[in-house]
């Protein structure tokens, strides 16, 4: 109550300044980012009205950054340049209505994009606490359709019927409604036709029929079965529930996700990623992702070997201020934006030209960092055995790169890779083509995994876990692996913090999904961050060990990034780039 007492006292001062403007907060917005704002008369000064709304919103404990207004501002909820433009996160319709009535001078361009996306609850909000599973977890199947167009119609009718019926008595739950489609449709082509955000895409690992299955359970009460039918690819838009935080991903966060999942509904999954280093500050381009970001899509397309499935998911929790009616209304809105069509993607090239390129670090700075690492590796104290240093290359192109088109190009080439795409509302898209490895149950032997331009030694272990919490412990223990950080882990991680001049964000972090029956994660390497403008960040890393040659490792970075750059065209001036970068400059 202390914060609300302060809120009311602060609000009294604000409304005095705004004279005829008054705002009344509703109950604490625990999981949902929404606020009820009422006005008695229009404000006489639009800038003061905007400041009033900004002050009010800043004082509330928003779930993404509940501690202080400065934290909210630092994490992108407010633009740094103007305090009179409140909330660039998931803005409430009521807040926009309030500002519109007051004639507040705010830039609404970015807001419009966000409002086109569905609002939903943050399942990792402080109010969620460490509680048990939601009351209802079920999947419902409708009759099979012959084409995606028919499936969309069935889902719209089903959701309309849900809205007309009395709401469930249960205060919380998650329901998946799916329509089988009697034809295989490419999930990327379906996603390419959709305009809604957030969105995600994940390919499946290649089937390995010779891999033996472990007897018993995976910890969730479900026998391990590597041979049962799994989607070839999954694409999703909207979020029935999202999970985002600014602190390192914790056991409590994992449990908040798992409470919406069930082994009885194995295709209800939370897709997303975790930062490489959640203790470091997020840069501007990564701030919308938080320290972790997962979504259960509102509308999901599953591509199978011989068929497809179109599904919707409804999630609600009264304790998070997100009711059944809220969820149904937002799902109806999202379904109206869903295109029943698929759009074929040109996978030969992206039809865009590189105008400029800037590496962070430059070649000269890279040489210095590698030299320092080698000194520590070869030093008397032997502080490190290995450290993995990375490079972030910013490409400016003449046209915007469509993340889905880039994803399709990578998928067409990367048969032995794991493709993914994650894009929160109004944020850059994180796209990757991470390699995968062979499955070996016991006594793993190294196998050579050949990719189009690089090759790796790989092996995979499989084992039974004792209980559900072990799933989190395994993920938490394996990350960061020596392949993306170094050895010993803490010494290597500290070296990266000290000498890397850019934010890795989700690059080299865990990327994948949690499910009720199983979960799957890869390391988010071979990845890029595609901005809304003409800027693309391509990430690549190299392991530094005793005997490393800095120039050879720089060339390896170019090789690893080439899966992205080969899809782009260069201007003639780029031919002179190699000479310029050796001097630490960029054309």
UniProtKB/TrEMBL annotation:
Organism: Paspalum notatum var. saurae
One Gene Ontology term from the biological process aspect of the record: phylloquinone biosynthetic process
Source organism phylogeny: Eukaryota, Viridiplantae, Streptophyta, Embryophyta, Tracheophyta
Name listed for the protein in its UniProt record: Chorismate-utilising enzyme C-terminal domain-containing protein
Annotated GO MF terms: isochorismate synthase activity
Domain Chorismate-utilising enzyme C-terminal: 437-560
Pfam families noted in UniProt: Chorismate_bind
This protein's GO CC annotations: plastid
Protein origin, superkingdom: Eukaryota
